[in-house]
Design a protein that fits this description.
With 342 residues, this protein is α/β, with parallel strands linked by helices. It has a single domain, classed as Rossmann fold (3-Layer(aba) Sandwich). Helices cover 32% and strands 19% of the residues. It contains eleven helices and twelve strands. Strands 4, 5, 6, 7, 8, 9, 11 and 12 form an eight-stranded mixed sheet that branches. Strands 1-2-3-10 form a four-stranded antiparallel sheet, with no helix packed on it. The structure holds zinc ion (ZN). Zinc ion (ZN) binds at residues 6, 8-9, 11, 34, 36-37, 39.
């Protein structure tokens, strides 16, 4: 039998790590390691049919999914914790970029974000004067993040122009009932290159059977200097390494492309993106609290424990949350698309 082809880099220098059954049937799925890029990937791909209404109610392989609550009111879920974190990271990225623009020199070294040497907010133009920030939420799901961003209105003084990308009944609702601009699988690739300042891709990439194709699209749609906010589980964190393919995140019917910091950085670089280190706070909290959704007493205890920085730092280290980089698009000096050949 020939070696399985890596879903991310296309290499056939891969080895079988093990097999386990899926959630819906005793059918076995195989997990392969790519020696070239480090991806752990699943064969065969079970198909997208599993993403039905029961799945979105948390009655499928992922019991922590709850689209209905998120669609009705994301404020009643824990997702606001990670939304605040993404807004904070985007805000810091924009402050650095705006600072460079105000300095009039793309190469100017800036003081660290939060430093008092940075332009105070009161000196910045009002939101109406600042250029719009075009934000794509790739895999917008039940739309909680789009609604959060709409309610927020601005990031670092830039008014937000929001677009979502997804398919299915919630995508239809977000477009028809909530008035969001939602692009489907056919419409998104028709967007012009370098359209978006920020693209968020929250817990999406692990579901994709061809992550390289989607990253190529994202990289094309991102403006030079733009920010890709991407989260996915870390298969190289201490807990994941200890549990191997029996780690709960290794749900072979839905999570088929399983990344580590190394394989994610490899994929970014293949598409002209530069790994961008992040230090998460609310994202760490959310990852813990969502798993305790059905255990209110434990959830309340965890919620207060996570306010202690050493506790959050320990959880972050055990699961390798902040070890997974986001990315920025290279600023090409000649204005050309800087995508490297693979
Ligand atoms: Zn690979």
């Amino acid at each position: 039998m020939s070696a399985a082809r890596c879903r991310a880099c296309g290499s056939t220098d891969t080895t079988l790590r093990g097999r386990k059954p899926g959630w819906t049937s005793p059918r076995e799925y195989s997990f392969h390691d790519c020696r070239t890029c480090g991806l752990l990937f699943v064969e065969p791909f079970a198909g997208f049919e599993i993403y039905d209404d029961a799945y979105y109610r948390g009655e499928g392989p992922d019991p922590f999914v709850d689209y209905e609550s998120e669609y009705r009111d994301w404020r009643r879920t824990d997702r606001g914790l990670e939304f605040d974190d993404f807004a904070r990271i985007a805000d810091a990225h924009l402050r650095a970029g705006d600072g460079r623009q105000e300095a009039g020199d793309g190469k100017t070294e800036l003081p660290p974000v939060g430093s008092s040497v940075l332009s105070p907010v009161s000196c910045l133009p009002s939101p109406a004067q600042r250029s719009a920030l075009r934000w794509l939420d790739f895999g917008c799901g039940a739309g909680g993040f789009l609604k959060y961003l709409r309610a927020r209105g601005t990031i670092n003084g830039h008014p937000l122009e929001l677009t979502g990308h997804d398919v299915g009944s919630y995508a239809d609702l977000l477009a028809r009932t909530d008035g969001f601009r939602i692009l489907d699988l056919a419409a998104l690739p028709r967007e012009p290159a370098a359209t978006y300042d920020v693209i968020s891709m929250i817990e999406v990439i692990e579901h994709l059977p061809a992550p390289s194709e989607q990253l190529a699209l994202v990289a094309r749609l991102l403006k030079p200097g733009g920010l890709l906010l991407l989260t996915t589980g870390n298969l190289d964190g201490p807990v994941a390494r200890r549990q191997g393919i029996h780690y709960g995140y290794c749900a072979p019917e839905i999570h088929v492309s399983l990344f580590s910091p190394r394989s994610l950085a490899h994929l970014y670089r293949a598409h002209g993106l530069v790994p961008h280190p992040v230090r998460y706070r609310g994202v760490v909290d959310f990852k813990v609290l969502k798993t305790l959704r059905h255990r209110p007493a434990l959830r309340a205890l965890a919620r207060s424990a996570l306010t202690l920085p050493p506790v959050r730092a320990l959880v972050d280290r055990l699961y390798g949350v902040s070890a997974m980089p986001c990315a920025t698009k290279i600023q090409a000096p000649n204005g050309q698309n800087p995508k490297k050949s693979q």
